Amino acid sequence: MHPRETVDRALRLSALGLIDRQVAELCGVSLGAVQKWRTGARRANEDEDRRRRRSCPRCHEQPLDETAYAYLLGLYLGDGHIVLCRKGVYQLSLSCGDNWPGLIAEAADVMAAVMPTSSVSRRRKNGCTEVKSHSKHWVCLFPQHGPGRKHLRKIALEDWQRKIVEMHPGRFARGLMHSDGYRGTNRVRRHFNGSDHWYEYPRYLFGNESKDILELCGEVLDLLGVEWRYSRYNTISVARRGAVERLDEFVGPKY
Q1: pLDDT in tens, 149-162
Q2: Which is nearest to 76 in space by CA: 132, 134, 1?
Q3: Nearest Cα to 138, choosing from 78, 105, 94, 177?
């Protein structure tokens, strides 16, 4: 980085008609630096860096795609985690099963929509794909981040997050179900008239070891008017026909 005085002097000499090489010699800088200053490329890079530093919807009042965020929040609470990397930059990662390429693509899309100044990349791992992005402000958007596993610490939404979930409950439910949820067919055997009879019906299951996240799932299902119950201590079940049809409007099978 050169002092502002050096840059201004170089620009003045260029305006007087000196060629770039002469300006570089007089200012004691490289030819490439003079060319960037004269063409504005250096200023454009500085503007982009400044824009990236002020990219946080929480810290800098930048617009937030709330529809994308509601879905991303559900994914994060299920399969996401945040780690601190170098120079105070955080990495948001989502682990998505390779059996659902549509989920991988949608996860990357909403991550880019929520933090558009940060690039999104994918890394193939054993049986899954890690979708990840780096920013100093991911922890601002996901204050649930903390040391240890999610089910070993308190998970609670802040007021601004609750408002987004209440505005977009279907997207939040979709994110939860696409992370730790499942839509499949349940087979039940009934014995009567001397023989066994099998019945099949679709149902949703959402499993998580965090009591807090299970409660959040139950709350958003209530907002959507979806009847549910605990089938196990760590599993929410949506099995009644009307409830499944209602949830299908927002979630549907993974793909």
Answers
A1: 899 999 999 999 99
A2: 132
A3: 94
